[in-house]
Sequence to fold (537 residues):
Amino acid sequence: MHHALSRHRNILDFALSSLLRRKAKNISLFLVYTLIIFVIASLIFFVQALKREAALLLAEAPDMVVQRMIAGRHDLIPTNYGEKISAIRGVSEVTPRLWGYYYDPVFQANYTLLAPDTAPPPPGSITIGSGVARNLRIKTDDLVTFRSYSGTPLLLTVSGIMPLHSELVSADLVLMAAEDFQAMFRMPKDVATDLAVTVANPRELVTVANKIVELFPDTRPILKSELLRTYDSLFDWRGGMMVVMLAVALFSFVIFAWDKASGLSAEERKEIGILKSIGWETGDVLLLKFWEGAVISLTAFLAGVLLAYGHVFFSSAALFSHALKGWAILYPQFRLVPTIDGYQLSVLFVLSVLPYTAATIIPAWLAATIAPDAAMRS
Amino acid sequence: MKRFSLLFSAIICLWLNVASALAAPAAPAPGPKDKCPVCGMFVHKYPAWTAAIRFSDGSHAWFDGAKDLFIYLNNLPRYAPTRKPAMISAMLVKDYYSLKLIDGKTAFYVIGSTVYGPMGHELVPLAKQTEAQEFLKDHGGKRIVRFHEITPALLKSLE
Fold:
């Protein structure tokens, strides 16, 4: 056991010194390898983090949302629609919701305004998301002015800043009392943005939705499952873009590995010949090449993954967030909460480190099986 | 002395209250290992279809649908040889609309509808007659049946 270990150690030692002998070549190899892993791992981290944000967003979404339509566009819904809807068999609760968007011309950002029905802030005060706080450079107990739709400024006190559970969800959120919301947008008191409908038995959702449309032909019920599908296809579209990029990256990796595999230089072949003639077994030569490949691919893999982690979670994927995130320009800067999908990382590992190592061994094996003098002379 | 007895009785009252609160059947639910004695499926996976028979000793038999409950009830010697009909203290089924456990004896059951349970055709339990009628209309049900109308022949037709 001890003997086998020290044999490995000696060969690893030799492998490292032979890597150092061809410094320029191996460093450039390492850099290319790291770059490819960095790009792929960044994509994996980024899409994973976005999916997590979306899942958080939808976890609290109601089973069904009922919107009123006018000429095919979303309109405010009278709250008395809710009374009739809650009388439909199977509906356990109907809550009118008040929410909307506010464009802040000074800081050029869009905020999501919401009047929560459970524990709303008292009139005259707001609770804000961390992104809004960062953007407006305000903290608790500061005063904020929003320009209301009647033209008069609305003065509000910041009563708290929301914790960082999910940046994408809460970064741009401003919670306010229903009275302030109505004053801000000059909204009548008997209307809501939409109605959130809760149905006890999920099997009954479609029937309830049909009854709502029958009762109020000017409404559009949206089921959570439809929302999930929309988000899924959205991310799939982005994921689809990711697949293209991934395919390009993987393809370039294959070319690179193939190049490396087919191109065993004359010098390397000579070296294998010398090693064999001084008494190395074919197995030892293969072990040496295996260690050479493993050292490069493992360090490059680790470096690439670490760089990608820093890129996605500390710099908010600065390199490609504009391509993958929607309306990024009007959005308060946000940080993704780190999530790691072990499965995808191991797939990346298996798809990069293993083929690369194999690609280094096979030509060495071909060279090591011919006679030493022929290898040295060629 | 009088004060002591007052204190003592107060403590007894409190203790009895706590004890009765603990003994009162809290909203019962099947555990992760409870299997339907008729079909052998795990019951907790189908919370919308849970049905139960409570025995006088406080134990429950759990079913993944009212149909299996009635099959069990009609063939007690086969499924539970140690139990007697007299030992049954309550029968509970899930109301389709509210998903709450209701009394199986007073429930209205709709058969022949397009709503299937984990075991296929079901007797869909509903708390009120008006609800049963609406369900029948919405989901293409054939007939509303009451507890005493559910015979082995009817159960056979649902298989």
